[in-house]
Amino acid sequence: MSAAEELLAASSLEVVRDGPRLILRFIGDWTTAELSKHDPALRGLDTQSAQQAALDLTHCATVDSAGAWVLDRTVGDLKARGLVVEVVGATPAVETLMGTVAARHVKCPPAPNPENPLLAVAIRLGRETLRISREAAALLSFLGLTITVMLRTLARPWRIRWTPLISQMEQTGFNALPIVGLISFLVGVVLAYQGADQLAQFGAQIFTVNLVAVGILREMGILLTSIIVAGRSGSAFTAQIGTMKVNEEIDAMRTLGLDPMEVLVMPRVLALVLVLPLLTFYADIMGLLGGAVMATIVLDITFFQFARQLADAVTVETLAVGIIKAPFFAFIIGMIGCYEGLQVTRSAESVGQQTTKAVVEAIFLVIVLDALLSIFFSVIGF
């Protein structure tokens, strides 16, 4: 490159005053790499008593989109000060680029005014309340749709898809036996140990059996099993259906005339409703076994003594309370898992968000329903 070409490429800005006319000469390459040198001068330009302004681009060698934006911004600033502005010496390419930039110019919103902290909290609380209300209404609508489809399917058993149903029963029930059994056994151990430690103060260690039996059969067995299933199977439902939503497989089903509620939702919900009572019974047995093992170690009670005290402490109603809750919890977990899966948008990030949301909502609603059912059974004396 010659010395003259290098001098031309080095951008510069000349400000010439000709009476009431202000002339801005843009020289060299007005590109992204050169703009930082001249931006402060353009922003702090002193027009004094000028009434007209001219942007002379005769010696402007190259202009990119950033340079065109700076030129357009300068024209806007000068017009805002009341000057009559014209652009001279621009090539057709530069004029076209400046016109494109001006047509797509977006005015930056003003900086928000600082809000009152209490007002900001109230606004946020109101927005969250509205959001939760809308989600609750949508979930209630999906509940009605699920019940309708389930009753319609049960009325016509030949429409039940047995292969997916059996597969889901295996995945949600049989494959969950190890983790459910282990946790229930350990919870039985903990209850027996803590109960024996407290009841020893009153010389009533034998009633540790009553504590373990009632706690496991009425509450802990079903509650722990439901929480495990919500975290394990409910999240799987959301992830599976959500991935199908991202891959547009659900749209393909509708195109083929298949109802996603019958094909995807019903097998999962029915499978959970069928297997959760069995998982709960299994959890009860493992919890009692853990309590018996710890009672034998801590209290020196034989298994036969534990079994005799257990028979005195437990009735059929005690076992039935936990089993009766299971189908309701299973329906809630399956419904929420499928609902959140159908709410996934066309992104992988949405799958993770809805999966987390499904687990949190399912566990929350299970605990709320457990509290309500416990109060109800207590009131009716069951």
The succession of helices and strands, N to C, reads: HEEHEEHEHHHHHHHHHH
Helix content: over 70%
Q: Which structural class matches the secondary elements?
A: alpha/beta
Name the overall outline.
Answer: elongated
What fraction of residues sit in β-strands? 5-15%
Q: What separation lies between the terminal Cα atoms? A: 96 Å
The DSSP helix count reads 13
Low-confidence stretches: 1-8
Number of domains: 2
Mean pLDDT: 84
Number of strands: 5
Work out the radius of gyration.
36 Å
Structure in a nutshell:
Helices cover about 75% and strands about 10% of the residues. It is an alpha/beta fold. It has two domains: about 5-105, STAS domain (Transcription Regulator spoIIAA, 2-Layer Sandwich); about 135-380, no CATH class.
Structure, explained:
- By secondary structure, the chain is α/β, with parallel strands linked by helices.
- It folds into 2 domains: 101 residues, STAS domain (Transcription Regulator spoIIAA, 2-Layer Sandwich); 247 residues, no CATH class.
- It is 73% helix and 8% strand.
- The protein contains 13 helices and 5 strands.
- Strands 1, 2, 3, 4 and 5 form a 5-stranded mixed sheet that branches.
- The chain starts with a helix and ends with a helix.
- The N terminus is likely disordered.
